[in-house]
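Good morning,

Both structures are done.
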Amino acid sequence: MKEVQTVTEYAETAGVPQTVMTRHLLEIGDRSRDKEKGLGLVTQKADMNDLRKHRAYVTTLGKSTMNKVINALYSVRRK
């Protein structure tokens, strides 16, 4: 739900190594680490202030999917 963060920031928040988070973002991004089509839920763009860093942005498909998951979890919780 927090977009525009770097791989390092996501990894620290999730408590996983940066390499693991990189793999996760690739799989849910535009293309997988195997260079196959990814899920398209996020896209990564270079940070204009530091081109070594890339920031993740949730796509329209990602926002739609996130809303469906949140609604499903909310409906289960209410039961």
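Second structure follows.
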Amino acid sequence: MKIAIIGCGYWGTHLLRNFNQSEFWDLAGACDLDENQIKKVKNNYPNLYTTNSIDDILNIQGLDAIVISTPVFSHFEIAEKSLKKGINTWIEKPMTSNSEDAQKLIDLSIENNCIINIDHTYIYTPAVRKIKELITNGELGEILYYDSIRINLGLFQHDVNVIWDLAPHDISILNYLIDKKPTAVSATGSSVIKYNEKNLESIAYITIYYEDNTLAHLNVNWLSPLKIRQIIIGGSNKMLVFDDMAVSEKIKVYDTGVKLTNREDIYETLVQYRIGDMYSPALPNKEALKEEVDHFYNCIKNKKNTDTDAHSGLLVVQTIEAANKSLINGGAKIELL
């Protein structure tokens, strides 16, 4: 299938490499408004058609799909043009800058029989796939809580706060792993440093609530001296730690839990702690982006939604919107419709 990429910055270079190397895709063009980025693309792909015009890209003959790897504020306008032309569309996360636009793109994709894929790349990592398998198989039991830390020093974004920048990763992972619909969100945060005269929050703490009392807590931060990418999932049977920065043993499963029992001869509930073995499942050595590139092709070919489709993208945007609304309202709980 024929594909073109709009946006050739940091992430765009990874997309170019993967689509160029794929046996399923014919990389037909690349577009960027920055002439310096186009020059870099030309150096690496001398035979590739390049342009500064989005319209020129969308008018490539026989184009099956495009990739939008541009700032979030531009996603809707480009995707709208693409979908109206009947072109399958891959959109960098987050899907759009508001949920109303995300819903419009969903409606357009249905109307024009197109597939939308949102680039939540973490969903295609071997580690997240394995965690999903463990949860689906019931090894962890009922999921009780999800606790994540995604912190580092920079990179400061000029157009969005830390929630829009970092939280989509964990919200998308959370939605994929836990097959439950969130009901409310609360968030607190601070713009510790005034960046480009803008009060963009660089630190935030987000809590997501579920109907069955499952709780998720996300810590996102641009001002940490350490880069940490860690998720803890507590289940009724076992508990799991995912450390994405670990070279080996990224996932550790702990046979650890709590059991509450009552005895007839006493009134108080007894708490029994179980501390058993730990094991680390083997993970295949696969590049997540390559897996996603292949998955996108197969879904278009078979006319089925991707694992990170537009509906999952909409839920992420809705959650971020609620978190930002809570932030403005001093951490108030915001209901998700």
